[in-house]
Each structure stands twice: as C-alpha cells, then as structure tokens.
Amino acid sequence: MLAYTSFFRVNANEKGIVLRFGDHVRTVQPGLHFKFPYPIETALTPAVTNITSIDVGMRASGGSPIGVPEESLMLTGDENIVDIAFTVQWRIKADEAPDFLFNVQNPDLAVKAVAESMMREAVGASRIEVLQTTGRNEVQEQVRVGLQKTLDEYGAGIEITEVKLQKVDPPAQVLDAFRDVQAARADQERLRNQAETYANTVIPRARGEAAKITQAAEAYREQIVAEAEGDAKRFISIYSEYRKAQDVTRRRIYLETMQEVLGDVNKIVVTNGAAGGQNVLPYLPLNELKPKSGAAAPSSSSTAGSQTTNGGR
To answer: Are the CB atoms for 46 and 100 separated by under 8 Å?
Structure first.
C-alpha cells in the first residue's frame, strides 16, 4: 500500500502538480514519478491540452439550442437590441497549471462571466449591420483579446483559443419588421448604384458631345478666319497691281467677273453696226459640240452644214 501511494503516472496530455501538506512544491512532466506517500504529498494531474467549450446566450437541449435571453440580449452602438449567442473555447496553460488549480475556484463560471462582459462591451461599440456582416471577425478577435487579458490579470492560468459568434439576430418579436427594414435598405442601395451607373454613363457622353461641338466650332472659326485672311491678302495684292496699272487691272477684273457670271448661261453677243445699228454676232458654243460620254459623235456632214448655215447668216 505504501509503494502504491508513492508512485504516480502523468499522461502525455497532463502536467503533474505535487503538493506537500497542501503546498505546491514542484511540477513534473509526463511519465512515472515518485512522491512521499499520502498524506505527506499528493499529486494532481490536470489535462493541459484538452479544449473546453462554453456557450453563452444559448443552451443545448435535445440536439437543438435554446436561447437564454438574459445572456443573449444586448444593446448595440446604434441603439438596437440584438440577440447574440457565441461559444468560447479554452484550455489550461501548460506553464501555469498551478495557477489554474489554486487561483480560480470555478473556471467555467469565470470564463463565462468575463466573456459575456467583453461581448457586451464590443457590441455596445458596434452597429447591428456591422455585427451581421463585415464586423464579425473583428468583434470575435476583440472579445478574445480582452478576455485573455482579463484572465491573465486574475492569474487564472487559462488560455482562450477561440471566440465564435453563433447567432447575431434581432429579437424574435421584431424579426419580421427588421427584415423589412433591411430589404428597404438593400433596395435603396441598389437604386443608388443604378443611378450612379446611369450618371457615370450619361455624363461622360454629354462631355464628349460638348467637346465635339466645341472642336467643330473652333474648326469653323479657324476656317472662316483663314478664308478672311486669304481674301484680305488677295484684295491687297489686287490693289497693289491696280495702283501699278489701273486700266489693265480694271479690265482684267471686269473680264474675270463676266466669266464667273456668264460662264454657265446661254449667251447672245450683240455688236454695234457700221451705221449705228445693231447686229447679232454669231456665237458657236464649242463646248456643247463636244461628244458626250455614251453618245454618238455628230457626223462631219452635219457639222459642215451647221457651219455653212451660220456663215450664211
């Protein structure tokens, strides 16, 4: 019996804590160890690798969780009530197993109370939309860090491995109304995006049209200015020639003007006769006598006859 109480085994997932008359004297690693027989020394072997889970805001009952309103109902930063349930996972710190054994009487209750306090603080600084969407991971990490810091200050010897949000919903009494509000906000966001898309399409198009009109106006202005400058230079050059030879220049301008005015009309030339009368001068439209494309050329006899007739006149 004495030998049986003098040896003890520490498993691979445990730490051996040896107490002498209730006072911690040493910590041993996994394996077979010797101690003084009871009641001089006793050995405790807490499992330091086992993960313990604690649910806050819900309880498992028959496979389906049941909400605990006194734990789950919290007030958000935008003054909304939210129903939250989350899970905390923890284990004993291997190097602080004696602190876990002697500094905390009920570790599950301590972890749960501190975790609920940290979660209420984090939820009170957040909006409900953030908690339900992009802010979940941030809140989980904030609660984990705050919970670990508080337990370390207590000397609890506990390591928080994870904080996981299980449910973030409005209270059941207002859930339908809340979903209607969320749907309305989603429609508002969708319509806003559509309006912004339309604006991003129409505005650049209008700016392009305005730029096109501006460029056309500038091109027209440059054309008119260039034509005016050309006419001015032409007038100056003509005026210079006119000053050198006024009669010749006047006649040349007259002939050029007549050519431009009478170039495309039928013409009859009338000259003054010897006795003061008027005679009609025969006019042969040579351009009209040229054969047109696809038309047969006039015969030589017809041409000769025309010339004879005109000569007879």
So the answer is: yes
